[in-house]
Amino acid sequence: MGNHSDGTPTSSDAVAKAGHEEVDKFQDPGLPPHRLRLADTNPKAAKRAERQVAWLFIISIVGTLLFFVGYFGVRLDDTIATLRIQNTFLGLGVAFAMLGIGTGIVHWARALMPDHEVAEERHEIRSEEDRQAAVKIIDDIIDETGIKRRPLIRNTLIGAVALAPLPAVAIFRDLGPLPGDMLRHTLWKEGERLARDPDGTPIKASDVTIGSAFHVIPESLNDLEEGKLNAKAKAVVLLMRLKPEDLNPSEGREDWSYNGIVAYSKICTHVGCPVALYEQQTHHLLCPCHQSTFDLTQECKVIFGPAVRPLPQLPITVDADGYLVAQSDFHEPVGPSFWERG
Amino acid sequence: MSSATQTPFEPTTSTGRITNFVDERVGGSGILREFGRKVFPDHWSFMFGEVALYSFVILLLSGTFLTFFFDPSMAETHYHGSYVPLKGVEMSVAYSSSLNISFEVRGGLFMRQVHHWSALLFVASVSVHMLRVFFTGAFRKPRELNWVVGGVLLILSLAAGFTGYSLPDDLLSGNGLRIIDGVVKSIPIVGTYISFFLFGGEFPGTAIISRLYMLHIMLVPAMILLMVAIHLFMVVVHKHTQYPGPGRNDRNVVGYPLGPVYAAKAGGFFFIVFGIIAMISAFFQINPIWNYGPYDPSPVSAGTQPDWYIGFVDGALRLMPGWLFNIPMEWNIPLPWGTNTLSFNVLGPALIPAGLIFALMFTYPWIERWVTRDNREHHVLDRPRNAPTRTAIGVAGVVLYCVMWAAASSDLIATHFHVSLNDVTYWLRALFFIGPVLGFIVTKRVALALQRKDREIALHGRETGRIVRLPHGEFQEIHAQLDDYKRYKLVGYESPVAEEGIPNENGIVTKKENLRAKLSSFFFEDRVAPATPSELEAGHHHEAIEASDDDNKAVTH
């Protein structure tokens, strides 16, 4: 006898020699002898189990009553507190009603119903005869259609069946309009005032102190009759003021800011969540959905996370009344990338 | 059923009369005869499938109630319900009617919570049930197709969950939809079009809620119902699997008869599942939409989480670096007609890990059958330790899933444990690759160790904790031999050897066959064979001390 408990399995006896298994194998001793339960032998125990089951069913009845106490007894007074109380009563009532029935039945089955395990033979899913007959039937059917002998019929049928579903695809065309260049334009245009989200009051440049941030919408957004959410989904902007020397504008963008005030699209270039977190100390913008992090001092370049492109910048200036206005629309599509973006 | 020569069945009891009535019209007694006493094996791990079925029934019941009050319109309205903080706020009719279900319909909040909790439980129990089936090898012939049906059910349950999640049109689910929109737009060529068709124009549009509603209450549940019917039909055809043990083999099925004891246990269990869901819904608030407010594309709350089953895809999106060192993961591809954008930083993590997991899941039964060349029917399950490589593969998959899942909470992990969010992400990125490998190695070693422990116990018996002192002063612990039944449970498994490549009819071992041989040795290497009677016999003669079953007399050989 080798050592079974240690050593590599290949060198120990733990690996049986091929072919040995069949002869040298423990025989199935068969089902273990049935063990009687207490309730099978002791009438008192059986009676006790019977009473326990009945009590569980009574608990269920009480639970149902509890539900009605909650339903009719709790007055809702427009506060969350009474709603919670009612919800607790209803929930507990249903819970007891259901658990009482469930545990009662299961206890009944386990303690009192016969618990003899029985063995049943498995039948073959199909007999050899059936299978041969089935194969023959299929062959006969195919043969009688003559589809193998008449390739003209077969090929035209394949063509017809392949084309027939196309209307079912085409008919969904009117689910929506074609994209066109909709994704390339927003509400922003030259002279459009930057306004506070959501009330729409315009922002004066003098209101923006260093370190502050504003959630911004175009002033005309709230005047829209319809499509407000669609327009807002593209047009929302974050406005922040840094020390002018902290901004490092690239060529051509030097005049896109005003006095250290910059405006960037709030829609993440990853999958479109609002980039809502501004870390004032580090000048980082963080998207709370997937943690893409943009550095304001580097024109919102991605410094961490799954986004690739920087947030698009909205060129701004001030109008005659001192209000912040857009110089133009964004110079690139906002939000997540798409195939035609280019 | 009876032929003309037999005397007609004369019912004497009321049961007999009812049975006779039904049988003479629809012939039900044949079915009853077949199934009334059908044997079902019992084991606690078979419960997960039942939980899935029952939570689906509860979903149908509570969902039907909710449809009576819910209005899936995205038309603008002003809230006039009883929840004061939102009075007068502009919102969609869908959101307003969801609020009304919570505040105006008595028991409406309870039904919403029941519906949401049972949805979470439904996906969870389907998943755990599939893990049980995988780790016990229940997917093997003849049940491969039912495994596929189960996989389809898992996907459908995700679809049902997702379409339902968005319906209240609250801020949280709206941001979820926006993420979906971003992912859809990243699909090459057709992405933008699919997005526009899905939302009826630009995001968010005014169509998506009613479209999701139709899918959620009609198409998806109908498909689930159909799949459940096929699934259960196949369970009946195959009969249930059973765990290995004395008296159980591939030719029989051992358990309790359907009527009454199994039916009572299973039927009673429905009420228990319902009761537990009701208990959870009574005490634990879920999806308090009134706190989130109506959907608005501008705000988002930090630390929000998707429902748990979407977490792994969301986590994958978070793990993917946009820039790999200095290489961007989004490419502008110059093509003859212009430049197109491929957003691999979105498309890759959204499709590849989930696609890999599902593809492997669906094909695994065929892969294992090809590698092991095991074409026999299996009705006796494997204990997970007795198929170490399969168990290790399963755990590797679970680890991969869980790393992605954890990544979906990376911000909460960071704030909760006061660590850097970036570090959490870096660690999880590393674990994404290392974790499954570690999981595989550790699991395989643990399974082999457990197998050796089984051998040890089968051959030397269990430790009794009683120490005896021998005449020459040596101390030994007495081991009690197992009885035949308990021992058989430890030794009654197969442990095939790895196969060399088999030459084809031309005497050549093809490359494919060579690969199969390599995979076969990967699958079976380090195997531990079951203990044999001759080993036990040999052990008896060498053991210094053994105890008989009753532990009373120590016998020295």
Automatic annotation (TrEMBL), chain A:
Specify the superkingdom.
Answer: Bacteria
Query: What Pfam families does the entry give?
Result: QcrA_N (PF19297), Rieske (PF00355)
**Keywords of this entry:** 2Fe-2S, Cell membrane, Disulfide bond, Electron transport, Iron, Iron-sulfur, Membrane, Metal-binding, Oxidoreductase, Respiratory chain, Transmembrane, Transmembrane helix, Transport
Query: Could you give a GO molecular-function term held by this entry?
Result: 2 iron, 2 sulfur cluster binding
- What does the entry list under GO cellular component? plasma membrane
Name the major location.
membrane
Q: Does the keyword Transport apply?
A: yes
Its subcellular locations are: Cell membrane
- Cited InterPro entries: QcrA_N, Rieske_2Fe-2S, Rieske_2Fe-2S_sf, Rieske_Fe-S_prot
The transmembrane residues are: 53-74, 89-109
Q: Which SUPFAM superfamilies match?
A: ISP domain
Membrane topology term reads: Multi-pass membrane protein
Q: Provide the Rieske domain boundaries.
A: 234-325
The record's listing under PANTHER family reads: CYTOCHROME B-C1 COMPLEX SUBUNIT RIESKE, MITOCHONDRIAL
What family does the database annotate? Belongs to the Rieske iron-sulfur protein family.
- Briefly state the protein's biological role: Iron-sulfur subunit of the cytochrome bc1 complex, an essential component of the respiratory electron transport chain required for ATP synthesis. The bc1 complex catalyzes the oxidation of menaquinol and the reduction of cytochrome c in the respiratory chain. The bc1 complex operates through a Q-cycle mechanism that couples electron transfer to generation of the proton gradient that drives ATP synthesis.
Q: What is this protein called?
A: Cytochrome bc1 complex Rieske iron-sulfur subunit
From TrEMBL, chain B:
Which EC number applies?
7.1.1.8
Q: What is its main location?
A: membrane
A single GO molecular-function term is: metal ion binding
Give the SUPFAM superfamilies listed for this entry.
Transmembrane di-heme cytochromes
Compartments where located: Cell membrane
What protein is this chain from? Cytochrome bc1 complex cytochrome b subunit
Disordered as annotated region, ranges? 534-557
Regions that span the bilayer = 51-70, 114-135, 147-167, 179-200, 212-237, 266-287, 308-326, 346-367, 387-406, 426-443
Which reaction does this chain catalyze?
a quinol + 2 Fe(III)-[cytochrome c](out) = a quinone + 2 Fe(II)-[cytochrome c](out) + 2 H(+)(out)
Q: Which cofactor does it need?
A: heme
Q: Name one GO cellular component term.
A: plasma membrane
Q: Native species of this protein?
A: Arthrobacter psychrolactophilus
Instruction: Tell me where in this chain the Cytochrome b/b6 N-terminal region profile domain is found.
Output: 18-244
Q: What is the membrane topology listed in the Swiss-Prot or TrEMBL record?
A: Multi-pass membrane protein
Q: Which Pfam families match?
A: Cytochrom_B_N_2
